[in-house]
Structures are given as structure tokens and as C-alpha cells.
Design a protein that fits this description.
The chain has a domain at 84-103 and 220-402: Rossmann fold. It is built from 19 helices and 14 strands. The chain has helices spanning 15-21, 40-48, 51-63, 69-80, 108-126, 139-148, 167-174, 189-201, 203-209, 219-234, 238-241, 254-264, 281-288, 312-322, 339-351, 358-370, 389-396, 404-407, 423-430, and strands at residues 2-5, 8-14, 30-32, 86-91, 94-98, 130-135, 154-161, 180-185, 211-213, 244-249, 271-276, 332-336, 376-381, 417-419. The strands form 3 sheets. The chain has a 6-stranded mixed β-sheet with strand order 4-5-13-10-11-12, sandwiched between helices. Strand 4 (86-91) and strand 5 (94-98) form a beta hairpin. Helix 4 (69-80) crosses helix 5 (108-126), helix 10 packs across helix 12 (254-264) and helix 15 packs across helix 16. It binds pyridoxal-5'-phosphate. Residues 106, 108, 138-139, 216, 249-255, 303-304, 359, 382-383 line the site of pyridoxal-5'-phosphate (PLP).
């Protein structure tokens, strides 16, 4: 598989190189030179396969012979065996695609676990040291830390904005220890992300500690996420597949990029909705044609509190490659939701006997607004409601249970360092 940098189309790398590098110079994102395409007949066949075989077909079409078929099948099994997605019917023409049945109860488990397996595969080939440096606005931290936990010769360093993630989110990665170090930064998520970007531009440092990113900028995470769109599609009744519209709660826009790629390789999803909270840089861009990020606003859907979404350039590139129009697109709708509306939707979903959390509720709100009579709508459930326990309990006025998987972490002690958002402080820590 050949990929190029969005900052320099002449800079070409293989898939394994792109996974290892994370980002290219000038913070260029990698993008596939040629997106595979499955004809209708092939799609039909893929849809009949089980989740692992489906994923193999898709990922093999991208990656090609860089990883042998046997090894890729093993990697897929290890990555996805604990993360099978589920569809929960909510209304007559609306269901939630629950992506939170993985080890850290977040959809990020899919991408993080696949990436960690690829990096481990690379490490076995190349030897040497690996440091995974990740900024998290909540769920990435837990998913990445968990995916690499106890892997030999792999160090994990996680940055997060102090006081801006939920208690349970924090517990899920700050209590692990062993090869996982955590740093709370006195600043916003965008500032954490900036620190990571600076570290990646420091080529000496990068080499010295074998720096690798765990964020959704890594192409392996994106590819892994394509697979569950196929799985979801195949689990829907045929009559619902024709007019399928999927609402994605967006932060860094990795999840929706993967969905749009799924469509671009032949999965006949009618359209996607980019749903955001008040951090609405993309909806405003699509409406007014002006790219004007504002200061990040803290909301109850905090994993989406991002005003400069990393993956947006990839969506632009995909549309360019496919010669799809991004303005007034049939394939990409958009909307943003206030806190008040989000809370109202959580209450409404509860009345429908479904306990949801703020991110999914954002997606549900905009789906309800946009869906037409003939359409079937999925909104993505990106986290288990118990990860936002305090918020959800207050809104629905009912206690919710923690799943067994995370119960034990709740009362464990957190271990975190704390720094101001200055690169020299981070560098000292890393070396
Ligand atoms: C990360 C995250 C999102 C946003 O996903 P992106 O791929 O960054 O757009 C949405 N919801 C939850 C719960 C998340 O953790």
C-alpha cells in the first residue's frame, strides 16, 4: 500500500512506514494513494462473511502484501475479538450502533487495538525502543493505554487536559502503571495536541525514544474503523439498507472519515451526518465556506471538545480523489447541538427506555432533525453511558451501574504527573 503526505504529495511511504511515522514532516497526514474499490458483487460477498473475515477482506485490500495473509488474520483476531459491535433498536426507523463493547467501553478500542498489534508486529521485525505519545480528550487515553498495556519494550505516555475529562475516564488509564505514564496538562486538549505535534517535529527526540503516536492521526486506526461500518450494514434488514443515513458524533473526525472511506470503497450508505457539539468549526465551514476555529468550549460531550479537528484534511482529500463535491454534499450532512438540546435528548432517549451518554445524544439529536420518512437512521454509540456516570445520572435522575469490566478501577489510586503546556517540560519527562 502506498500513501502520501497531505503536505507533500511526493513524499510516499508504505503502510508500515506510515504506521511507524504517524505523521509526516510539517505535520502532514498520510493518505492512501489509491483507495481500493469493491464492485457490487464483491460487496455482496463481503457482507455475508463474519466480522473477522470481512475485516480481513477490507484491510487486506488496503495493506496488500506488506503483511502476510496469515499474520493479518491473526492481528485482526487479536484486535477485534473483544470489541464486536451491536445494533440496538430505539425507534421505528432509528437504531444505535453500539461501538462500546470493547475493554475500555469506547469505540476507540477498535482503532487502538489494531494499531497496537501492527506496532508490535513492526517491533518484532525491527527491534529497538518504542514510545507511544498520545494526547487525549478522554477516551483515547484509556483505549491506547489498554491496547499497549504490558507490551514488552513499549512505553506509553498519555497527556490529558487537567480537570476536563470524567473521573472514570481518568481512572481507566491513570491507575494502570507498569509501562503506562500519564501527565495532566494545565490547559485544553488542543494544547495537549500541540505538545504532541511539537514532539513529532523534533527528529532527534523522535529517533532517540522511537516516538510513535497513538492518536487518530495514525492511519492504522482509521483503517480499522472502516470495518465496523461494513459489519453494521450487514446486520441491518435489507429494506433498511437502501436509504441508510448514519449520524456520527465528531471530535477529531476520525470516525466519520472511516465511514466515508467505507462508502468510497463501495459500501452503499446513502449519507453521513457530521454531528458536533458547540465546537462547530466544521458545520460552520460547510455552511458558510469559512474555516474559522474558535476557542475550544468545554461541554458534557468532552471527547468532542475540539475546534481544530485533525482528520478534516483527510475528508477534503477523499472528496477530491473521488471527485465528490463537499459543498451541499449529498453524502455529507452536518449539524451542531447545544448543551440544552443534548440533555433533552438524553431524557427523551431514557423515556424510550434507552440510557445514552452525551456523545451519542448529540448524534441522535441531529439525526432526528435530518432524517426523512423513507430513510433508516443509525447514530453511533461511541461510549458506554457509565463512562459519563455523573452527568447522565444527574440528567435522568437515576443511578446507573458500572459494568464489571471497570468496577475495580473506580476505587484505585491515580498516578499522574502534572505540567504546564510547555514543550521543554514534556521533553524533560520523555528523555
Ligand atoms: C473520540 C470520541 C468521539 C469523537 O471521535 P472522532 O473520531 O475523534 O471524531 C466521540 N465520542 C466519544 C465517546 C469519543 O471518545
Amino acid at each position: 500500500m502506498k500513501l502520501y503526505s497531505l503536505k507533500n504529495i511526493f513524499k510516499e511511504v508504505t503502510f508500515l512506514e506510515a504506521v511507524q511515522l504517524g505523521l509526516c514532516e510539517k505535520q502532514g497526514l498520510f493518505f492512501p494513494k489509491k483507495i481500493p474499490f469493491f464492485k457490487k458483487k464483491e460487496i455482496k460477498k463481503i457482507l455475508k462473511m463474519n466480522f473477522f473475515e470481512k475485516s480481513f477482506k477490507i484491510l487486506n485490500a488496503f495493506i496488500g502484501n506488506e503483511i502476510s495473509k496469515t499474520n493479518l488474520r491473526k492481528i485482526i483476531k487479536k484486535s477485534f475479538e473483544h470489541t464486536i459491535p451491536k445494533i440496538r433498536k430505539i425507534e421505528k426507523n432509528i437504531a444505535c450502533l453500539e461501538l462500546f463493547h470493547g475493554p475500555t467501553l469506547a469505540f476507540k478500542d477498535f482503532g487502538a487495538r489494531f494499531m497496537s498489534q501492527i506496532i508490535y508486529f513492526l517491533k518484532k521485525k525491527n527491534k529497538g525502543k518504542v514510545t507511544i505519545l498520545t494526547a487525549t480528550s478522554g477516551d483515547t487515553g484509556a483505549a491506547v493505554a489498554n491496547a499497549f498495556y504490558k507490551m514488552k519494550n513499549v512505553n506509553v505516555v498519555i497527556l490529558y487536559p487537567k480537570g476536563k475529562i470524567s473521573k472514570i475516564q481518568e481512572k481507566m488509564f491513570c491507575t494502570l502503571e507498569e509501562n503506562v505514564k500519564t501527565i495532566s496538562v494545565n490547559g485544553s486538549f488542543d494544547e495537549c495536541q500541540k505538545l504532541v505535534k511539537i514532539a513529532f517535529n523534533d527528529s532527534k527526540l523522535k529517533k532517540k525514544i522511537g516516538l510513535n503516536s497513538g492518536n487518530s492521526i495514525n492511519i492504522s486506526r482509521l483503517l480499522a474503523q472502516i470495518c465496523y461500518y461494513f459489519e453494521a450494514f450487514s446486520n441491518l434488514k435489507k429494506k433498511y439498507r437502501k436509504n441508510l443515513i448514519i449520524s456520527v458524533p465528531c471530535g477529531n473526525f476520525g470516525n466519520i472519515t472511516a465511514g466515508l472511506i467505507a462508502k468510497s470503497i463501495g459500501l452503499p450508505i446513502k449519507s453521513f451526518i457530521a454531528s458536533t457539539n458547540s465546537n462547530d468549526t466544521v458545520p460552520r465551514f460547510l455552511k458558510y465556506n469559512k474555516w474559522e476555529p474558535k476557542k475550544t468550549i468545554s461541554t458534557i460531550s468532552n471527547a468532542m471538545d475540539i475546534s481544530i479537528p485533525n482528520n478534516w484534511d483527510r475528508i477534503i482529500e477523499l472528496f477530491k480523489q473521488k471527485k465528490w463535491n463537499i459543498k451541499n454534499s449529498k453524502y455529507l450532512k452536518f449539524g451542531s447541538v447545544s448543551e440544552k438540546q443534548t440533555k433533552k435528548s438524553i431524557k427523551k432517549l431514557y423515556k424510550l427506555k434507552y440510557i445514552s451518554e452525551p456523545h451519542a445524544a448529540v448524534a441522535y439529536t441531529i439525526l432526528k432533525k435530518k432524517i426523512k420518512k423513507e430513510e433508516y437512521g443509525l447514530f453511533l454509540g461511541t461510549a458506554h453511558p457509565s463512562k459519563f456516570k455523573d452527568t447522565v445520572e444527574e440528567i435522568i435522575n437515576k443511578k446507573i451501574k458500572l459494568p464489571e469490566k471497570i468496577k475495580h478501577q473506580k476505587n484505585m489510586k491515580s498516578f499522574s504527573f502534572s505540567i504546564d503546556p510547555k514543550f521543554n517540560l514534556l521533553k524533560k519527562f520523555l528523555t
